[in-house]
Amino acid sequence: MSEIRAVPIEMPEEGDVVELPETVGRVDSWHDYRGAASGTRFEMTVVGSGELAEYVLLSTSIGASEIEDGAQVLAADVEHAAVWYAVPRSAYGGN
């Protein structure tokens, strides 16, 4: 048996390092409107199983793009026309 993990990611920024499960089963994403002063926040929760590993969050514009080998597509942020994906930190130049 393996443990199911849910990892919340709030207001992701390109280059953030996060721990994600090795097998991603589902990602839910949404915009949370916080009022006129705060605006909209983009959030996602990654659910999966297995050990946690470090990943680097990256984004690209919606449309045809190339992403790194081994990348895991996570979510589309339609408000900002971006697709969020994660690359293993080891493949991104991490330790």
Structural description of this entry:
With 95 residues, the protein is mainly β. Helix content is 0%, strand content 62%. Strands 1, 2, 3, 4 and 5 form a 5-stranded antiparallel beta sheet that branches.
Strand content: over 45%
Helix run count? 0
- Give the biggest beta sheet: 5 strands, antiparallel
Q: Could you estimate the helical fraction of the residues in percent?
A: under 10%
Structural class: mainly beta
Distance between the termini: 29 Å
Morphology call: globular
Low-confidence stretches: none
Radius of gyration from the alpha-carbon trace, in angstroms: 14 Å
Mean pLDDT: 88
Count the beta strands.
Answer: 5
What is this entry, summarized?
The protein is an all-beta fold and 95 residues long. The chain is 0% helix and 62% strand. Strands 1, 2, 3, 4 and 5 form a 5-stranded antiparallel beta sheet that branches.
Give a quick set of tags describing it.
95 residues; mainly beta; 5 strands; globular
